[in-house]
Automatic annotation (TrEMBL):
Database matches in InterPro entries: Ser/Thr_Dehydratase (IPR050147), Thr_synthase-like (IPR004450), TrpB-like_PALP (IPR001926), TrpB-like_PALP_sf (IPR036052)
Keyword Manganese found: no
Descriptive protein name: Threonine synthase
Pfam families for the chain: PALP (PF00291)
Positions of modified residues (N6-(pyridoxal phosphate)lysine): K85
Amino acid sequence: MTLTCVDCRASYPATLLYACEACGGLLEVTRPGTEPPGLDALVSPAVTLGECGTPLLPVRPGSLPTPARALWFKDETRNPSGSFKDRLVSAALTTALTFGSKGLVCASSGNAGASAAAYAARAGIPAVILVPERTPTEKMAQIAAYGALLVKVAGHYSNSYAMALAVARETGFVNVTTTFLNPYGTDALRLVGHEIYDQLGGQVPDWVFVPTGSGPLVKGVFQGFADRGGRMPRLVAVQAEGCAPIVKAFEERAGEVQAWGEPKTIASGISDPLIGYARDGTYTLRLVRESGGCAIAVSDDEIRRAMRVLAAGNGIFAEPTGASSLAAAQKMLARGDIGPDERIVCMVTGHGFKDFGIYRQMPVHEIRVEADASASVIIQALEGMGPPERVV
Ligand SMILES: [Zn+2]
């Protein structure tokens, strides 16, 4: 196993190295001679809580405002800490322990931090988790519950990112920040592509929608399908209108992604302005273009509607970021960019338990009754709800 720069192709022995020493580029894990490369180690990491192997659920017919006949949800909420980040963290930490790491550091918008704290607890090592101070309270409570040191950093995510670099440098702890920083973590995401491929019986989807901050999950899906050979799905990097650096570069046909200003969106998991590491976004944009896909931004209202379709229409409870993929797929279906017969997979990246605040503001069917109320009151309310076919 070696580390290779995705830009200048310089190669390094496998150590705790986070960037190319020659050009500062992103590093990826290469395992020459095995095919598919190194999957055994990824499937059975030493530090595990039972991550991966999440279900691929077909959409309930009739639940989509703009219909699609072949749409699936890759339900990553089912990972141990409630998001796809568990795939990354289990692999990154397993590798770091073999290098002698005594603790971990993670900058996070919440989900990676919760995951890192959980796996640190599992490994019995200390964890320092840095999050923006405006992170949803549920995510912060989860991080603290796992016993980590929770550091609330003023301002947006990129501030936490910079501080994590400093803490990792000073302590020697492994940095499992889930941008492209830790090549072992990013590498583990290729299993997502493999799982989708297998779950669809080898039939490659036409489109895969991926909620995207810096973009390691885009790479994971890309790499997984590339491992299997044959046709590639078109990858769609989904961002929020209030934080869309990759979409902006895609629409302007720019070669490089520029950092965003102040993010403003309910989708905390993809609220990443890429300040100081816009290069990550440029790499993700390159993969999106290579796949023939695109980058698209969705509004907070579109995300809220998708959350309702997922929860009330399909029984899947997702946080705003997790529903952004469906919001984008609906947008492209409605515009006719995608035909109703094309095969679509939406990555649902994080659990609804992680951000109750948004659901609390949504209309619900709810009544209060006295303890001695007649059942007819409830039946009346039930009849007032209308048919369940279009609950959303
Ligand atoms: Zn390089």
